[in-house]
Amino acid sequence: MNIVKLGMVSAIALGAAAPVYAQSAEAYAATDLNIRSGPGPQYDIVGVIPGGEATMVEGCLDGQSWCRVNFGDTMGWSYSDYLAVEVEEQAVALTTRPATVEVGTVTYEDPDGTAENETEGAAAGATLGALTAYAVGGPIGGIIAGGIAGGAAGSAAAEPEESTITYVRENPVDTVYLDGEVVVGAGIPTTVTTYEVPETTYRYVNINGATVIVDNETNLIVDVVR
């Protein structure tokens, strides 16, 4: 299967993976959120934090939206736009946290893959956009109760039928890499080619190593096939 790279993260921080500050923080997944083996969409998915579940954030890369997390027996990296922290009883994305919420800074070293990832990222460029994230906000209780994916996706959040899931699994397509993370409610740029699911209003595509089902009218992700 060919791999098409659009907007891959190209900058990977180097150095020993150790926090600058001693403190870690508890955050909640605003929706079912991937844990990846490294800080970028090109890394393998090694686990998922269910929407509304808490995870420990060991630290975040300086100037990037990736944080090292510890969820149960799984350690890896998650996208901070969808990790919510509590600020005055409101849910705030870890990416946009105020200075009062202190999280350690970590760096990342991938001696076997960093040079290759940087080269591929530079070649791909970032001119074709990224996944459009939805805003994390509202009472923190709403996040804890089960995430905000349904509300974020709006009318496009209808659950696809099992026949649709079966079809996309049996008909794999090329992978496209975009900045950001695949979650229900995220928007796909119109520059990305999606593929028809017969006799439905859905289309599908593989983004960042995950097959997603897309609403044909809104171009919003309605399901991540796991």
Automatic annotation (TrEMBL):
It comes from the Bacteria. InterPro entries: DUF1236, SH3-like_bac-type. Residues 1-22 form the signal peptide. The keyword Cell membrane does not apply. The keyword Signal applies. Keywords: Signal. This is DUF1236 domain-containing protein. It comes from Sulfitobacter profundi. The lineage of its organism: Bacteria, Pseudomonadati, Pseudomonadota, Alphaproteobacteria, Rhodobacterales.
